[in-house]
Amino acid sequence: MVRRFRVSLLAGWALAGLGALGGCEEEATPEGDAAAICSEIVDQLRSCELLSEGEADCRLFEQNGYGSCVVRCVRAASCDEIRAQTCDDMDNPFARCKETCEFQAFARFDCGDGQFVDIDYRCDADPDCANGADERGCDAAEATFDCGDGGRVGTGEQCDGIPACSNGRDEEGCPQRAETLCPGGF
Ligand SMILES: [Ca+2]
Ligand SMILES: [Ca+2]
Known about the structure:
There is one protein chain. This protein is mostly helical. The chain has a domain at 7-106. The protein is 26% helix and 6% strand. It has 4 helices and 4 strands. It has helices at residues 34-47, 66-76, 79-88, 93-106; strands at residues 108-110, 116-118, 144-146, 152-154. The strands form 2 sheets. Strands 1-2 form a two-stranded antiparallel ribbon. Helix 1 packs parallel to helix 2 and helix 2 packs antiparallel against helix 4. Mean pLDDT is 81; it is low at 1-11 and 14-29. One calcium ion binds next to loops.
């Protein structure tokens, strides 16, 4: 029952992370809005000269209402604030906002009945949600990507910038990703 915060998922803007403030608790944004939200965040980062050209990876924003939460942080923040958080890892209202969103989206599992449990309790063969939702659908085979050499990796590994197939095929033919720009070349 250790609470682990999934920082690795959230590193950097290039791979999509952004943060939000309080009041992020509300509605998850409908799927159709994910692209618009990502585009707004990307536009803001570019106007702050914090993101290069290239295709932004919006996948993180599509998960668990993260995009709809973090876009509010971006709207409320100045370029200086975003830059300080992104480039210098400085604590400020924007950083705290983003952290709140990350916690709400990725560190807990939504039981669907108003209860939340630590994400690590998902599929641990022990019901933690009162309604047992955290143990449902655990046997379903995870969608996989064929490495072409007999190996398979999760579809989420494809084009995430980190080779998961031993032959690196999950990173082949991927769009050129936008990269975070920081003064001094962070
Ligand atoms: Ca469980
Ligand atoms: Ca990969």
